[in-house]
Please model this.
Amino acid sequence: MNAIILLGAPGSGKGTQAMRLAESLGLPHISTGVILRQAVADGTELGKVARDIMAAGRLVSDEIVLGIVDERIAAPDCGRGFILDGYPRNQAQARALAGVLSKRGATEWIANIDVPPEELTARVRGRRGTDGRQDDSEEAFCRRLEVYESESLPLLDYYGNRAVNISGLGSRDDVFGRLCAALPFAAARLVTPKLVAQ
Ligand code: AMP
Model:
């Protein structure tokens, strides 16, 4: 079982790349942000707890998000593996994830999509208001960036050379190409059908 973990700042394009990788590899895309936004939209108990925290750009508790991930990866469609997008977001979550994955005998593949802060700010100004995310007010975005820098950026030290660094600059296709090249089994799997077809 392959657990592909994508790291990156808000606005790094991580979600887009995660979806594309999931589609190409035929693996489920697990975004804790998407699951939480759905819970808010559905007005569930989880959604009620998460709503204000998300709107403020802060992190929902580690216990809640671990519960979401643990339950989701136990589903049958995750048997071959899955793409994690937005989890882990701090070292406590990374340690909890390592425990859950080792219980399931999963191999971790970690890729970080690297975009400089000034480019992130420019991108989010362009995106704000277009996809209806209520956590994309300028204030909330700045808060999310601060939280990313203080909580999530240290994950790069935590994972050390287990995380491959990918430049998130250039077109989506460029970034996707780099991502696949950095995940050896992904590159092999994406290339093989073309070779067979020739
Ligand atoms: P995202 O779509 O990944 O940017 O997540 C949107 C929001 O959901 C974040 O700003 C957090 O409030 C919450 N969230 C998503 N994933 C996590 C996580 N792993 N830990 C804590 N909060 C999270």
In short: Confidence is low (pLDDT under 50) at residues 191-198. Residues 10, 32-33, 36, 53-54, 57-60, 65, 86-87, 89, 93, 135, 144 surround adenosine monophosphate (CB under 6 Å). DSSP finds ten helices and five strands in the chain.
